[in-house]
Amino acid sequence: MYVEADDLRQILVITKNEIRKFIRGKRLLIYVVIAAAMFILASFLPYIFNESWHSAIDFLSTHLGSLNILVIIAVTLFASSTYVSEFEERTALILFTRPVKKTTIFIGKFIGCFIMEAVVLMGYYVAIGVTFPFFDDGPAISGYIASFGTIILFLFAASALASVFSVTMKKAGTAAIMTFVTMFLLISIISGSIYLSTGEMPWYMLDYAYYSVFLCIPNIDNLLIDFELVYGILTMIMWGAVATILSWVLFIRKEM
Known about the structure:
Low-confidence stretches: 222-226
Number of strands: 0
Shape: globular
Strand content: under 5%
Number of helices: 11
Distance between the termini: 21 Å
Protein backbone atom coordinates (compact mmCIF):
# COMPACT_ATOMS: atom_id res chain seq x y z
CA MET A 1 0.00 0.00 0.00
CA TYR A 2 1.67 3.23 -1.15
CA VAL A 3 0.33 6.75 -1.66
CA GLU A 4 1.80 9.45 -3.91
CA ALA A 5 1.37 13.23 -3.62
CA ASP A 6 -1.55 13.43 -6.07
CA ASP A 7 -3.19 10.49 -4.33
CA LEU A 8 -3.48 12.57 -1.16
CA ARG A 9 -5.65 15.10 -2.99
CA GLN A 10 -7.83 12.33 -4.38
CA ILE A 11 -8.10 10.73 -0.94
CA LEU A 12 -9.30 14.06 0.45
CA VAL A 13 -11.94 14.35 -2.28
CA ILE A 14 -13.18 10.79 -1.73
CA THR A 15 -13.24 11.35 2.04
CA LYS A 16 -15.33 14.50 1.61
CA ASN A 17 -17.73 12.72 -0.74
CA GLU A 18 -18.07 9.82 1.71
CA ILE A 19 -18.86 12.19 4.58
CA ARG A 20 -21.31 14.11 2.41
CA LYS A 21 -23.03 10.86 1.46
CA PHE A 22 -23.52 9.85 5.09
CA ILE A 23 -24.73 13.33 6.08
CA ARG A 24 -27.35 13.31 3.34
CA GLY A 25 -28.49 9.79 4.20
CA LYS A 26 -30.66 8.64 7.09
CA ARG A 27 -28.07 6.45 8.80
CA LEU A 28 -26.32 9.38 10.48
CA LEU A 29 -29.62 10.62 11.88
CA ILE A 30 -30.43 7.12 13.14
CA TYR A 31 -27.00 6.87 14.77
CA VAL A 32 -27.32 10.25 16.49
CA VAL A 33 -30.82 9.41 17.76
CA ILE A 34 -29.60 6.06 19.14
CA ALA A 35 -26.60 7.72 20.82
CA ALA A 36 -28.82 10.41 22.37
CA ALA A 37 -31.32 7.82 23.58
CA MET A 38 -28.56 5.72 25.14
CA PHE A 39 -27.13 8.74 26.93
CA ILE A 40 -30.49 9.86 28.29
CA LEU A 41 -31.47 6.38 29.46
CA ALA A 42 -28.11 5.65 31.08
CA SER A 43 -28.05 9.06 32.77
CA PHE A 44 -31.58 9.30 34.12
CA LEU A 45 -32.72 5.71 34.61
CA PRO A 46 -31.73 5.66 38.33
CA TYR A 47 -33.96 8.67 38.99
CA ILE A 48 -36.95 6.81 37.60
CA PHE A 49 -36.52 4.32 40.44
CA ASN A 50 -36.04 7.11 43.02
CA GLU A 51 -32.29 6.58 43.13
CA SER A 52 -29.39 8.88 42.33
CA TRP A 53 -25.76 8.66 41.27
CA HIS A 54 -23.39 8.26 44.22
CA SER A 55 -20.28 9.41 42.37
CA ALA A 56 -18.92 10.53 39.02
CA ILE A 57 -17.02 7.24 38.79
CA ASP A 58 -20.28 5.26 38.98
CA PHE A 59 -21.82 7.55 36.37
CA LEU A 60 -18.83 7.23 34.04
CA SER A 61 -18.51 3.46 34.55
CA THR A 62 -22.14 2.96 33.52
CA HIS A 63 -21.71 4.94 30.32
CA LEU A 64 -18.41 3.33 29.38
CA GLY A 65 -19.97 -0.07 29.95
CA SER A 66 -22.50 0.60 27.20
CA LEU A 67 -20.32 2.49 24.73
CA ASN A 68 -19.10 -0.74 23.11
CA ILE A 69 -22.70 -1.28 22.00
CA LEU A 70 -22.68 2.18 20.42
CA VAL A 71 -19.47 1.28 18.56
CA ILE A 72 -21.03 -1.94 17.28
CA ILE A 73 -24.07 -0.01 16.06
CA ALA A 74 -21.77 2.54 14.40
CA VAL A 75 -19.77 0.01 12.39
CA THR A 76 -22.97 -1.86 11.49
CA LEU A 77 -24.54 1.31 10.10
CA PHE A 78 -21.47 2.79 8.41
CA ALA A 79 -18.39 0.61 7.96
CA SER A 80 -20.28 -2.53 6.94
CA SER A 81 -21.74 -0.77 3.88
CA THR A 82 -18.79 1.43 2.91
CA TYR A 83 -17.44 -0.79 0.11
CA VAL A 84 -20.22 -3.23 -0.66
CA SER A 85 -22.59 -0.36 -1.55
CA GLU A 86 -20.31 0.64 -4.42
CA PHE A 87 -20.70 -2.80 -5.98
CA GLU A 88 -24.34 -3.31 -5.06
CA GLU A 89 -25.38 0.05 -6.51
CA ARG A 90 -22.99 -0.38 -9.47
CA THR A 91 -21.31 2.99 -8.75
CA ALA A 92 -17.99 1.15 -8.74
CA LEU A 93 -18.28 0.97 -12.53
CA ILE A 94 -17.82 4.75 -12.58
CA LEU A 95 -15.15 4.89 -9.88
CA PHE A 96 -12.96 2.16 -11.33
CA THR A 97 -12.96 3.64 -14.85
CA ARG A 98 -11.53 6.93 -13.59
CA PRO A 99 -7.77 7.52 -13.10
CA VAL A 100 -7.98 6.79 -9.40
CA LYS A 101 -6.14 3.94 -7.70
CA LYS A 102 -8.18 1.37 -5.84
CA THR A 103 -5.91 1.95 -2.87
CA THR A 104 -6.80 5.63 -2.94
CA ILE A 105 -10.50 4.80 -3.04
CA PHE A 106 -10.11 2.32 -0.20
CA ILE A 107 -8.28 4.79 2.06
CA GLY A 108 -10.57 7.72 1.31
CA LYS A 109 -13.74 5.77 1.98
CA PHE A 110 -12.35 4.24 5.17
CA ILE A 111 -11.29 7.63 6.55
CA GLY A 112 -14.63 9.24 5.68
CA CYS A 113 -16.55 6.45 7.36
CA PHE A 114 -14.28 6.48 10.41
CA ILE A 115 -14.65 10.24 10.86
CA MET A 116 -18.45 10.00 10.90
CA GLU A 117 -18.34 7.27 13.54
CA ALA A 118 -15.74 9.04 15.68
CA VAL A 119 -17.49 12.42 15.68
CA VAL A 120 -20.63 11.02 17.30
CA LEU A 121 -18.54 9.12 19.86
CA MET A 122 -16.70 12.34 20.64
CA GLY A 123 -20.02 14.07 21.16
CA TYR A 124 -21.02 11.32 23.58
CA TYR A 125 -17.79 11.75 25.54
CA VAL A 126 -18.25 15.52 25.67
CA ALA A 127 -21.81 15.02 26.96
CA ILE A 128 -20.49 12.77 29.74
CA GLY A 129 -17.75 15.26 30.64
CA VAL A 130 -20.24 18.12 30.92
CA THR A 131 -21.88 16.33 33.85
CA PHE A 132 -18.70 16.09 35.96
CA PRO A 133 -19.08 19.55 37.60
CA PHE A 134 -22.22 18.20 39.27
CA PHE A 135 -20.09 15.63 41.12
CA ASP A 136 -17.37 16.08 43.72
CA ASP A 137 -15.12 13.29 42.45
CA GLY A 138 -14.82 13.78 38.71
CA PRO A 139 -11.94 11.86 37.06
CA ALA A 140 -8.70 13.51 36.01
CA ILE A 141 -8.93 15.06 32.55
CA SER A 142 -5.79 13.21 31.40
CA GLY A 143 -7.32 9.82 32.20
CA TYR A 144 -10.58 10.81 30.56
CA ILE A 145 -8.82 11.85 27.35
CA ALA A 146 -6.78 8.63 27.41
CA SER A 147 -10.02 6.67 27.77
CA PHE A 148 -11.40 8.39 24.68
CA GLY A 149 -8.21 7.52 22.82
CA THR A 150 -8.60 3.83 23.64
CA ILE A 151 -12.22 3.73 22.50
CA ILE A 152 -11.10 5.33 19.23
CA LEU A 153 -8.67 2.42 18.87
CA PHE A 154 -11.52 0.02 19.56
CA LEU A 155 -13.58 1.83 16.91
CA PHE A 156 -10.70 1.48 14.45
CA ALA A 157 -10.45 -2.28 15.06
CA ALA A 158 -14.23 -2.73 14.79
CA SER A 159 -14.41 -0.61 11.61
CA ALA A 160 -11.59 -2.60 10.02
CA LEU A 161 -13.33 -5.87 10.85
CA ALA A 162 -16.59 -4.54 9.40
CA SER A 163 -14.67 -3.53 6.26
CA VAL A 164 -13.71 -7.16 5.70
CA PHE A 165 -17.40 -8.08 5.55
CA SER A 166 -18.12 -5.03 3.42
CA VAL A 167 -15.58 -6.15 0.84
CA THR A 168 -16.49 -9.86 0.82
CA MET A 169 -20.31 -9.68 0.92
CA LYS A 170 -22.47 -8.96 -2.12
CA LYS A 171 -25.29 -7.19 -0.27
CA ALA A 172 -25.06 -4.33 2.24
CA GLY A 173 -27.75 -5.95 4.37
CA THR A 174 -25.77 -9.18 4.61
CA ALA A 175 -22.58 -7.32 5.50
CA ALA A 176 -24.43 -5.41 8.24
CA ILE A 177 -25.88 -8.61 9.72
CA MET A 178 -22.49 -10.36 9.65
CA THR A 179 -20.83 -7.36 11.30
CA PHE A 180 -23.41 -7.12 14.08
CA VAL A 181 -23.51 -10.85 14.79
CA THR A 182 -19.72 -11.14 14.81
CA MET A 183 -19.13 -8.13 17.05
CA PHE A 184 -22.07 -8.70 19.38
CA LEU A 185 -22.14 -12.49 19.63
CA LEU A 186 -19.43 -14.56 17.93
CA ILE A 187 -16.40 -12.83 19.42
CA SER A 188 -17.94 -12.97 22.91
CA ILE A 189 -18.82 -16.65 22.49
CA ILE A 190 -15.27 -17.48 21.40
CA SER A 191 -13.79 -15.47 24.29
CA GLY A 192 -16.09 -17.12 26.79
CA SER A 193 -15.25 -20.58 25.48
CA ILE A 194 -11.52 -19.88 25.74
CA TYR A 195 -11.91 -18.60 29.30
CA LEU A 196 -14.00 -21.59 30.39
CA SER A 197 -11.65 -24.12 28.84
CA THR A 198 -8.34 -22.58 29.92
CA GLY A 199 -9.27 -20.51 32.97
CA GLU A 200 -7.19 -17.64 31.59
CA MET A 201 -8.46 -14.28 30.37
CA PRO A 202 -8.13 -14.12 26.56
CA TRP A 203 -6.63 -10.61 26.47
CA TYR A 204 -5.95 -11.03 22.74
CA MET A 205 -9.68 -11.04 21.94
CA LEU A 206 -11.29 -7.78 20.88
CA ASP A 207 -14.08 -7.79 23.47
CA TYR A 208 -11.58 -8.16 26.33
CA ALA A 209 -9.43 -5.42 24.84
CA TYR A 210 -12.36 -3.06 25.36
CA TYR A 211 -11.61 -3.08 29.11
CA SER A 212 -8.71 -0.74 28.27
CA VAL A 213 -11.31 2.03 28.11
CA PHE A 214 -11.84 1.56 31.87
CA LEU A 215 -8.20 1.05 32.82
CA CYS A 216 -7.20 4.57 31.75
CA ILE A 217 -9.21 5.97 34.66
CA PRO A 218 -7.92 5.11 38.17
CA ASN A 219 -10.32 3.42 40.58
CA ILE A 220 -13.00 2.86 37.97
CA ASP A 221 -12.40 -0.87 37.85
CA ASN A 222 -10.19 -2.43 40.53
CA LEU A 223 -10.73 -5.96 39.17
CA LEU A 224 -8.19 -5.45 36.39
CA ILE A 225 -4.47 -4.83 36.85
CA ASP A 226 -2.57 -2.01 35.20
CA PHE A 227 -0.34 -3.88 32.78
CA GLU A 228 -3.38 -5.28 30.96
CA LEU A 229 -3.89 -1.79 29.53
CA VAL A 230 -0.87 -2.31 27.29
CA TYR A 231 -2.19 -5.71 26.19
CA GLY A 232 -5.55 -4.17 25.36
CA ILE A 233 -4.06 -1.36 23.31
CA LEU A 234 -1.77 -3.72 21.39
CA THR A 235 -4.67 -6.10 20.79
CA MET A 236 -6.85 -3.37 19.27
CA ILE A 237 -3.99 -2.14 17.09
CA MET A 238 -3.25 -5.65 15.84
CA TRP A 239 -6.91 -6.47 15.11
CA GLY A 240 -7.28 -3.18 13.28
CA ALA A 241 -4.06 -3.51 11.30
CA VAL A 242 -4.64 -7.11 10.21
CA ALA A 243 -8.29 -6.51 9.27
CA THR A 244 -7.41 -3.32 7.37
CA ILE A 245 -4.69 -5.03 5.34
CA LEU A 246 -6.95 -8.00 4.64
CA SER A 247 -9.86 -5.82 3.50
CA TRP A 248 -7.50 -3.72 1.36
CA VAL A 249 -6.08 -6.80 -0.40
CA LEU A 250 -9.58 -8.14 -1.02
CA PHE A 251 -10.79 -4.76 -2.26
CA ILE A 252 -8.04 -4.22 -4.86
CA ARG A 253 -8.58 -7.77 -6.17
CA LYS A 254 -12.36 -7.52 -6.35
CA GLU A 255 -13.95 -7.17 -9.77
CA MET A 256 -17.44 -6.10 -10.81
